[in-house]
Amino acid sequence: DGGITQSPKYLFRKEGQNVTLSCEQNLNHDAMYWYRQDPGQGLRLIYYSQIVNDFQKGDIAEGYSVSREKKESFPLTVTSAQKNPTAFYLCASSITGVGTEAFFGQGTRLTVV
Amino acid sequence: GESVGLHLPTLSVQEGDNSIINCAYSNSASDYFIWYKQESGKGPQFIIDIRSNMDKRQGQRVTVLLNKTVKHLSLQIAATQPGDSAVYFCAENFQSASKIIFGSGTRLSIRP
After folding, report:
1. Which residues of B touch A45 (CB under 8 A)?
2. Contacts of B91 in chain A (CB under 8 A)
3. What is the pLDDT of residues B46-61, one digit of tens each?
4. A55-77: pLDDT as tens digits
5. Residue-wise over B88-107: b if at least 16 C-beta within 10 A, else e?
């Protein structure tokens, strides 16, 4: 089946630890995105990538890092520098250019304990 | 600056009535607008889209209206059903960068 897969669904992290969230897509999309969603809030853009080996910061990139070594994969690392990492993280992909919808994964809920 | 925002954070509608969810945007260069539906604990799902050269587009039970003069977008859901309960987001996409910016969302609840 074609789609976008995020793993794990739930993730617990101790304070001070880095953690990496996985995002894989087999839709042959060039563009991929990471969003953060807090309870009762909208989606805020963390990072996005339009092509392999290239990515740009979104509105809230501080404390996060990404890589785009393969077209299919766009992992997000939540570093210890992120002061309030507990949130719901959503990955999406799309064809590049205007007029294309984004397809979302089912999200990863990260909790810092 | 770039922003997409919603007028109402919550909306309660009687089952069977029509729902109207509103959205304001500030980037006049936006080319494309999308409505997403997000159910609890899940990722957003595409509902309907509209390009900036249109003012209305209809889908199955849903209609999107775009008023570029006042930078306003709305989603109309006909004969609202319990399965329509969710948070609805508008989003915009503009040519200066291949990124999609989301509004803050409206929670739609259905009264039996």
Report:
1. 99-102
2. 102
3. 999 999 999 999 999 9
4. 999 999 999 999 999 999 999 99
5. bbbbbbbeeebbbbbbbbbb
